[in-house]
Design goal:
The structure is a single chain. By secondary structure, this protein is of the alpha/beta class. The protein folds into 2 domains: 312 residues, Vaccinia Virus protein VP39 (Rossmann fold); 97 residues, no CATH class. Helix content is 27%, strand content 21%. Strand 9 and strand 10 form a beta hairpin. It is elongated. It starts with a helix and ends with a strand. The structure holds S-adenosylmethionine. The site of S-adenosylmethionine has 18 residues, from strand 17. S-adenosylmethionine binds next to strand 17.
């Protein structure tokens, strides 16, 4: 109870600090524990602020990864409310209402993530800066990991006069400095153009230290000669006369140092390769299941919104939802941020892409990722196309997708719970 009280105070304090005005929705009471059954996905139907608060009091800080795709505040008439424009009396201007909406939800999400947890948030230009301010206030600027730029369409939107914007963002924060990303599987083996008796490898990392602490005087014992032959084989002693000598001296003639001491270099010299000019590299071998650091620009046909629309049409038989995310984008986000046994949270679930991606990734890598989805029971507008397909509440769409997964994989287990 005290914890919830503290949280309540913290949110109120943040409200004051940010001088936000808006809805007052902080009725956080101690509810009954919400049991997580032995299932692949739990769909919590209802207002996500209440669902998050309930989850917090029953399950403290259990989530490894949280992905959300909140309303972007476009003002468009979607199946869900996407118009939250405040007045200009506060410093946040029109954005204050959207910030007030997001702040308590993000605060609760922060509390629900475990120490290594990571959160990924989709957003576009309109609220990006305001989201960043909220996240810095709640998660802390030191826990900001990166902003990914995702190419979402080939031609971009035509609504701006001078630029056809075809990207959006995924903002990543960690719960603590120990939050990690696992990278993505190396997809392009064609760049591994060299081979030796240890496997195929590429040359992309200098053995000469760069940047801070890289000078000879920083580590004098790591400045020593290396010898190499015409085939690029590296030795720490001149074992025969024809070998050429090289030192860690850069192109400007500055004396730097190697990455390893002479003893390690002698034992592991097979991992080194020298170019004909005597530049020494550490071989980068292609190993089974090798993962590489993610890049900040995500550009792949699997991330295009038109993909997501086609996926929705395929599953639901029509375009029953305007803003779905593509399965490929979620699969890759989960792959790098949610390990095989992760517990994942998405509290703006929409059509349930996150659960679908977790299922699909589990199929591929034998993982046991479990997902908690939250989606509101808001009534779908009478004239919306989803109505003609028999859906009356938005969370019906989420549930339909889960049922669809189960139809194709009978062992898939999901449950739903209503939060009032
Ligand atoms: C941008 S959509 C998410 C789409 C989703 N990523 C997908 O792939 O289908 C945002 C979703 O959040 C839901 N939502 C908005 N406000 C909510 C609230 N207060 N509680 C629960 N769900 C909410 C909307 O109904 C909508 O389905």
């Amino acid at each position: 109870m005290q914890r919830i009280q503290e949280l309540h105070e913290r949110i109120s304090m943040l409200y004051q600090q940010l001088t936000l005005s808006g809805e007052n929705i902080l009725h956080i009471e101690r509810p009954q524990p919400l049991e997580m059954l032995d299932i692949d996905c739990l769909l919590v139907k209802g207002e996500n602020l209440h669902s998050l608060a309930r989850l917090l009091s029953s399950r403290d800080s259990v989530f490894d990864f949280c992905y959300i795709d909140p309303p972007y505040n476009t003002g468009n008439a979607f199946i869900y409310e996407d118009r939250r424009f405040g007045n200009f009396t506060s410093v946040w201007g029109k954005h204050s209402k959207w910030m007030s909406f997001m702040l308590p939800r993000l605060t609760l999400a922060h509390e629900l993530l475990n120490e290594q947890g990571v959160i990924a948030i989709s957003i576009d230009d309109y609220e990006y800066a305001y989201l960043k301010i909220l996240m810095d206030a709640i998660f802390g600027p030191d826990h900001y990991i990166a902003t990914l730029i995702v190419n979402r369409s080939k031609n971009g939107k035509g609504s701006k006069p001078h630029v056809a914007v075809n990207h959006e963002y995924v903002v990543l924060y960690g719960r603590s400095p120990s939050s990690i990303l696992h990278g993505l599987p190396e997809a392009d083996s064609s760049s591994y153009g060299k081979s030796d008796e240890h496997g195929i490898f590429k040359i992309d990392g200098l053995f000469r230290k760069k940047g801070e602490g890289s000078l000879r005087e920083d580590r004098p014992s790591m400045f020593y000669p290396l010898y190499f032959d015409e085939g690029g084989v590296v030795y720490t002693e001149r074992v025969h006369e024809r070998l050429k000598e090289t030192y860690p001296i850069d192109s400007k003639g500055i004396e730097r140092r190697w990455l390893w001491g002479k003893e390690k270099a002698t034992q592991e010299s097979w991992k080194l390769y020298a170019s004909p000019k005597g530049v020494v590299y550490v071989k980068n071998y292609l190993t089974d299941g090798k993962r590489i650091k993610i890049r900040s620009i995500w550009d792949d046909a699997r991330y295009l919104t038109e993909r997501a629309t086609n996926e929705v049409k395929h599953i639901f038989g029509d375009k029953v939802f305007e803003t779905p995310k593509p399965l490929g984008l979620l699969e890759d986000l989960l792959s790098c941020a949610a390990g095989p046994n992760s517990l994942i949270l998405d509290f703006f679930a929409g059509t349930g892409t996150t659960a679908h991606a977790a299922f699909s990734l589990n199929q591929k890598d034998g993982g046991h990722r479990k997902v908690v989805l939250m989606e509101q029971k808001a009534k779908i507008p009478m004239d919306h196309i989803a109505r003609s397909h028999g859906f009356s509440e938005i969370s019906d769409l989420t549930e339909f997708r889960l049922a669809n997964i189960k139809q194709n994989a009978s062992s898939y287990k999901y449950a739903t719970v209503d939060i009032i």
